[in-house]
Amino acid sequence: MYMLKYSLRSIGAICSILWKHDKNPEIVNFMKNNYRPDFTYPDFASQFTAEFYNPAQWADIFQASGAEYIVFGSKHHEGFTNWPSNYSFNWNSMAVGPKRDLVGDLAKAIRQNTSIHFGLYHSLFEWYNPYYLQDKANNFSTQYFVNGKTMPELYELVNNYKPEIIWSDGEWEASSDYWDSKQFIAWLYNDSPVKDTVVTNDRWGKDSTCHHGGYLTCQDRYQPGVLQKRKWENAMTIDRQSWGFRRNAALDEYLTTDELIDTFVETVRLILP
Ligand SMILES: *[C@@H]1O[C@H](CO)[C@@H](O)[C@H](O)[C@H]1NC(C)=O
Ligand SMILES: *[C@@H]1O[C@H](CO)[C@@H](O)[C@H](O)[C@H]1NC(C)=O
Ligand SMILES: *[C@@H]1O[C@H](CO)[C@@H](O)[C@H](O)[C@H]1NC(C)=O
């Protein structure tokens, strides 16, 4: 089977972890030198305008590439939803920034003009959500974040956009019991609007990753090296270091064309027909 994945994750989230969490000196100084004092991560949202976002053109390019499915980032680890979620007040692409339903517009273009299966990436956890941090401080014995934010949002996403692939992520600090993943998966495969066609990956809790799921993604850049009994995917990046767009990336920090083709062939060779 011929597989290609376009994982379009939120650009800013990467910068945020380097700045706020790792306190990477280069990023901290850049912020100090270029932004007013007390500039916060959410202050970036209005600068995310997506003015060149052209879903119809993307759909044409994806189709021409031969891709059979795509996976679009609906929400990365900073919690900003690329659709007007009722669970992400003022922190979504309709309320601030693009003022647009980025997920819905792409879903329409893909369905109207291609034969590609439409999939969505979704991060279960959110780095700075106070409810998540509270649950974590409680050793995940409470589920304020799961009940009030991330799960209602995931049901909303499936009911509204009917993705045929759910590429779950951000699971690794907690168990599938904390995330209520089993209940969600049972609903997804038995009762949801996509129950007959949907496929999921394996990142549903630290006990689930690389064990359960429709197909395995295991760790990032997974390349098992030998033929596998189960369907799997190599989630990799063309930038050697980063999962986001880096304005300052040098050309030699990207994989070369040869390296990309090697990786592609190596991956396809180990996926059962
Ligand atoms: C949010 O709630 C409103 C009012 O109930 C509803 O019309 C809308 O479809 C909801 N949005 C989403 C993304 O589900
Ligand atoms: C489908 O393609 C046509 C022709 O290129 C274009 O006019 C239309 O906007 C596309 N539909 C969507 C939903 O993007
Ligand atoms: C969480 O677990 C740690 C380590 O076992 C313990 O020190 C801490 O008191 C626990 N916190 C709560 C709120 O139960």
TrEMBL record:
Any one Gene Ontology BP term: fucose metabolic process
Gene3D superfamilies: Glycosidases
Entry keywords, A to Z: Glycosidase, Hydrolase, Signal
UniProt domain Glycoside hydrolase family 29 N-terminal: residue ranges: 19-268
Top EC class, one word: hydrolase
GO molecular function, one term: alpha-L-fucosidase activity
UniProt KW Transport keyword: no
Domain of life of the organism encoding this protein: Eukaryota
EC code(s) of this entry: 3.2.1.51
Any one cellular-component term (Gene Ontology): lysosome
Pfam families listed in its UniProt record: Alpha_L_fucos
Matches recorded under InterPro entries: FUC_metazoa-typ, GH, Glyco_hydro_29, Glyco_hydro_29_N
Function: Alpha-L-fucosidase is responsible for hydrolyzing the alpha-1,6-linked fucose joined to the reducing-end N-acetylglucosamine of the carbohydrate moieties of glycoproteins.
Family: Belongs to the glycosyl hydrolase 29 family.
PANTHER family named among the record's database cross-references: ALPHA-L-FUCOSIDASE (PTHR10030), ALPHA-L-FUCOSIDASE-RELATED (PTHR10030:SF37)
Name of the protein this chain belongs to: alpha-L-fucosidase
